[in-house]
């Protein structure tokens, strides 16, 4: 199987796609405004202890307090079955007190209304090993199936393990010698000492250790011997990767390549795949389709024959559709990073042999997933129950936000996503037009991101495109609509660019309060922002105003009394 990793680096976000035989199976997106939190270590303070839930809320400096279960709070030194069972009978009030300062690590991202889940059992992943400073234990990855290799690695781990600490041998360590493991242990123990030292100083709550950025995590966790190619479209990131690999895995450097010609994700069809992820319906090769419905409680997946009518009999048609669906469902779980409880409603199959074949195919496909996934079998209703470990936010939560147009019942693309798309379209048009100016019409919330604070983003766009860019916020536009066109006429440029002049008196509807000055109100003239002094009390009213000052991206005005 051909396995490739594509890395697309942009100013606002870094995207990584994993392909198997040219088919996209995993996508990771990390944005500067929405950094990953799992793996971060914090010095926190216990805010509330809840005996009824056997848990506590811990203030770690995030918007919502983190949640700590009693089993994650008990500090074990070993992981024998007897001690693990005894931990269930420990009362949370015997372990934690309100106001107590503790060192915790984020185990699950904050999702929706829930805060992050944390643990006091710190884990520090390296290339070949995971160091567990609070547990005296040795574990071997279940994906290493050869029994003699497991025994060899266990013996090596016992030899290199620091006293009173634990190690988990990762899958990538298969076939590695003692030297590589010793190097990993040395780096991780030094890191743990730094973390301990930092936790003794500074304020509480406080971020003590931040996990690696996306590209570095990909090198550590995914870029293994079974990956054929790693392609990066940023020279700066490419050189950083080569430097890092020189120290860790020099034998894999030859598999890294730089691609600076076209849009990397567009060329390999990843952008198209991301568009499909936003839709609930996924078509199968046979003509059937699946519908994925994600809720807070669980994810429901429905299988339908769709356009596929088969060629022999109904049972074979249903079997073929369900087998194709099993393959696609396993891929979609990885692609969308769906976690938690998953219920699959396959098309009814009276034949038990057909049921066994579909379950076997599903189990075979989920084994390709690095995230722990269990197929629990058929329920009495004929539904397949599954679970997949939920660690980070699903891709849908990264790309979408609750829809303001339907009171949160649906979702639309976020302003940030639309602004990134608008920038890409601006760059594309700028390369193919001789016009001196480009008009961009978008929803006002998107326009404000494109303009930036004090017009900083707009100036940067103009410097990069060497074009005059006019951004117009249109209140009547749907948030996802982007209208971009080239402007050739100088008179048209001037008319659209600044549609008002000093001394002009206009009727303006005060739409909203000013973002930073609570006394002012904001109106718009053909999408051009009008900052009306002292008009915050007039929101919703249409009033006469006099334009006092005109700037590049907005103008100042004052309310006037026409009867004087």
From TrEMBL:
Q: Name one GO cellular component term.
A: cytoplasm
Question: Pfam families recorded for this chain?
Answer: RNase_E_G, RNase_E_G_Thio, TRAM
Where does the UniProt annotation locate this protein? Cytoplasm
User: Locate the S1 motif domain: which residues?
Assistant: 39-127
Q: Which residues form the TRAM domain?
A: 499-561
Concerning PROSITE patterns, the annotation shows:
S1, TRAM
State the UniProt keywords alphabetically: Cytoplasm, Endonuclease, Hydrolase, Magnesium, Metal-binding, Nuclease, RNA-binding, rRNA processing, rRNA-binding, tRNA processing, tRNA-binding
The record's Gene Ontology biological-process terms are: rRNA processing; tRNA processing
Report the protein name in the record: Ribonuclease G
Species for this entry: Thermincola ferriacetica
Q: What is the lineage of its organism?
A: Bacteria, Bacillati, Bacillota, Clostridia, Eubacteriales
């Amino acid at each position: 199987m051909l396995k490739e990793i594509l890395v697309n680096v942009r100013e606002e976000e870094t995207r990584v796609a994993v392909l198997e035989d040219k088919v996209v199976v995993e996508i990771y997106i990390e944005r500067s405004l929405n950094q990953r939190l799992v793996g971060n270590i914090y010095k926190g303070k216990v805010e509330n202890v809840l005996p009824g839930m056997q848990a506590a809320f811990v203030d770690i400096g995030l918007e919502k307090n983190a949640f700590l279960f009693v089993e994650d709070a008990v500090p074990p030194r070993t992981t024998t079955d007897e001690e693990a069972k005894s931990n269930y009978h420990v009362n949370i009030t015997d372990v934690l007190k309100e106001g107590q300062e503790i060192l915790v690590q984020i185990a699950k991202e904050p999702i929706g209304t829930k805060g992050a889940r944390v643990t006091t059992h710190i884990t520090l992943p390296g290339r070949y090993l995971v160091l567990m400073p609070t547990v005296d234990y040795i574990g071997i990855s279940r994906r290493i199936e050869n029994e003699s290799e497991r025994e060899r690695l266990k013996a090596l781990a016992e030899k290199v393990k620091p006293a009173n600490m634990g190690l988990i041998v990762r899958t990538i360590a298969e076939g590695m010698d003692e030297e590589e493991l010793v190097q990993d242990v040395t780096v991780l123990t030094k890191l743990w000492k730094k973390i301990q030292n930092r936790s003794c100083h500074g304020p509480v709550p406080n971020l003590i250790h931040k996990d690696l950025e996306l590209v570095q995590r990909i090198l550590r966790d995914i870029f293994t011997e079974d990956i054929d190619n790693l392609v990066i479209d940023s020279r700066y990131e490419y050189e950083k990767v080569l430097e890092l690999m020189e120290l860790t895995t020099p034998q894999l450097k030859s598999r890294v390549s730089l691609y600076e010609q076209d849009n990397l994700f567009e060329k390999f069809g990843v952008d198209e795949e991301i568009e499909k992820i936003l839709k609930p319906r996924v078509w199968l090769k046979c003509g059937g389709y699946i519908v994925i419905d994600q809720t807070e409680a669980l994810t429901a997946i429905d299988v339908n024959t769709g356009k596929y009518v088969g060629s022999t009999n109904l049972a074979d048609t249903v079997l073929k559709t369900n087998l194709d669906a099993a393959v696609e469902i396993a891929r979609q779980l990885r692609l969308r990073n769906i976690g938690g409880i998953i219920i699959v409603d396959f098309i009814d199959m009276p034949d038990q042999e057909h049921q066994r074949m579909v379950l076997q195919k599903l189990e075979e496909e989920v084994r390709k997933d690095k995230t722990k996934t269990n197929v629990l079998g058929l329920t009495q209703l004929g539904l397949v129950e599954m679970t997949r470990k939920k660690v980070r936010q699903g891709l849908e939560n990264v790309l979408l936000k609750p829809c303001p147009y339907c009171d949160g019942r649906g979702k639309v693309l976020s302003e940030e996503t639309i602004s990134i798309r608008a920038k890409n379209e601006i760059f594309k048009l700028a390369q193919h037009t001789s016009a001196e100016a480009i008009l961009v019409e978008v929803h006002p919330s998107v326009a404000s991101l494109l303009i930036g604070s004090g017009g900083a983003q707009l100036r940067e766009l103009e410097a990069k495109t060497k074009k005059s860019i006019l951004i117009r916020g249109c209140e009547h536009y749907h948030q996802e609509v982007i209208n971009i066109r080239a402007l050739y006429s100088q008179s048209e440029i001037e008319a659209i660019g600044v549609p008002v002049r000093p001394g002009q008196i206009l009727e303006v509807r005060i739409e909203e309060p000013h973002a930073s000055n609570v006394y002012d109100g904001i109106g718009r003239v053909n999408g051009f922002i009008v900052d009306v002094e002292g008009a915050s009390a007039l929101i919703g009213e249409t009033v006469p105003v006099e334009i006092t000052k005109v700037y590049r991206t907005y103008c100042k005005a004052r309310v006037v009394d026409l009867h004087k």
